[in-house]
């Protein structure tokens, strides 16, 4: 069998669990990350993202389960034995070394004869070659971040772990680095596992997003899939905005479920609901809802509401509308017409949406505290 460092292939977590005392931080995660893909682990603070990464890196050993790359079982091996490198949020560079020597540090320690050349190559990749002779204190935060990335890439890891690496950057730089990271990943073709609690960041960068909650994975898929068809209440609310309501399934009409919401029938496409009897939480995304002054004919679902707020954003207008259920819905209308709707707070409106755009999930998440 090849050594741990030579391991190649898809990264696989099998039933990976981590407990600290009687607290379960990571709860039996099964996960497969195809080689060369950009994978995001997205979830709220404390859900177990860093703990999961640390087990992949070997900085923490699982209480149960296995970490594999291809056919190689890495469980129990030391961090330096694994073909894995991590870029952390705080990217402490050695202040007394030049940028080139910072990046060459790993290869030099492993006695690589071409350490400096490899450092220059890695610096080129992150577009920092012209800064090679400077000291870290002479760089901006974003530039230091790039150097930290080069320092990990120079080791040619099979898997690169990124734990909130852009957390310390301001918004504009963050957006730039997101594009940059994606470019670098495509160029080097390594497996990237990016941890973030920023849903926009996860959606814009990753091929696959795993939404994590309380130590387990709620749902995994392409960003478009998760946004379009969330399977749990948690995912519906964590990824993008969702307008939701709770009702009771009363009937089936062809391909549709008919849900009674406070006396108003609401239709959901049967194939887009995780629940087929009893109570259901239905949801529809803000851009899928149309706001009208008068009741449109034949759209499917319509509910009357009262405008609470109007925000003109230039390309679009966002309306907050108070619904009969007491919920406030958010509706995003592109400003395609020259004639504006001219709505004001207090105006009565009709909200309509295509039943094929709604989704249905259980009203309570499994294991939720309620
Ligand atoms: N060494 C430890 N001992 C005890 N509890 C720990 C330890 N490490 C982590 N935890 C707990 O495990 C849970 C998950 O922690 P983790 O750092 O993985 O969360 P996270 O998803 O990375 O959160 P954040 O977004 O805030 O970084 C937390 O409740 C944390 O307090
Ligand atoms: Mg963390």
Automatic annotation (TrEMBL):
It catalyses: ATP + H2O + polyamine-[polyamine-binding protein]Side 1 = ADP + phosphate + polyamineSide 2 + [polyamine-binding protein]Side 1. Its EC number is 7.6.2.11. It is an enzyme of class 7 (translocase). It comes from the Bacteria. Residues 11-239 form the ABC transporter domain. Part of the ABC transporter complex PotABCD involved in spermidine/putrescine import. Responsible for energy coupling to the transport system. Belongs to the ABC transporter superfamily. Spermidine/putrescine importer (TC 3.A.1.11.1) family. This is Spermidine/putrescine import ATP-binding protein PotA. It comes from Nocardioides pini. The lineage of its organism: Bacteria, Bacillati, Actinomycetota, Actinomycetes, Propionibacteriales. The gene is potA.
């Amino acid at each position: 069998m090849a050594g741990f460092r030579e391991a190649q292939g898809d990264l696989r977590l099998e039933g990976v669990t981590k407990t600290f005392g009687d607290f379960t931080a990571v709860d039996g995660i099964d996960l497969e990350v195809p080689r060369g893909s950009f994978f995001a682990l997205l979830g709220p603070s404390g859900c177990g993202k860093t703990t999961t990464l640390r087990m992949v890196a070997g900085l923490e050993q699982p209480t149960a389960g296995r970490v594999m790359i291809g056919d190689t079982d890495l469980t129990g091996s030391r961090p330096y034995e694994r073909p894995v490198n991590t870029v952390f949020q705080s990217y402490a560079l050695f202040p007394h070394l030049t940028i080139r020597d910072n990046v060459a540090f790993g290869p030099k320690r492993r006695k690589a004869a071409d350490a400096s050349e490899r450092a220059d190559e890695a610096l080129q990749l992150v577009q920092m070659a012209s800064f090679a002779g400077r000291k870290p204190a002479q760089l901006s935060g974003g530039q230091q971040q790039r150097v930290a990335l080069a320092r990990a890439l120079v080791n040619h890891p099979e898997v690169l772990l990124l734990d909130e690496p852009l957390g310390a950057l301001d918004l504009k730089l963050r957006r730039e680095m997101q594009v940059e990271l994606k470019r670098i990943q495509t160029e080097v073709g390594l497996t990237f596992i990016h941890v973030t609690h920023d849903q926009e960041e996860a959606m814009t960068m990753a091929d696959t997003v795993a939404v994590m909650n309380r130590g387990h994975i709620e749902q995994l898929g392409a960003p478009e899939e998760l946004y379009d068809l969330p399977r749990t209440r948690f995912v519906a609310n964590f990824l993008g905005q969702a307008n939701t309501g709770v009702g009771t399934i009363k009937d089936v009409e062809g391909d549709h479920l008919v849900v009674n919401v406070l006396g108003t029938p609401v239709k959901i496409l049967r194939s887009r609901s995780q629940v087929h009897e009893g109570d259901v939480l239905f949801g529809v995304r803000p851009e899928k809802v149309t706001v009208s002054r008068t009741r449109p004919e034949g759209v499917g679902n319509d509910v009357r509401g009262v405008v609470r707020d109007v925000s003109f954003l230039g390309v679009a207008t966002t309306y907050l509308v108070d619904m009969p259920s007491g919920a406030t819905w958010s509706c995003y209308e592109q400003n395609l017409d020259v004639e504006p709707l001219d709505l004001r707070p207090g105006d009565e409106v009709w909200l309509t949406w295509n039943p094929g755009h709604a989704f249905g999930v259980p009203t309570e998440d499994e294991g939720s505290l309620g």
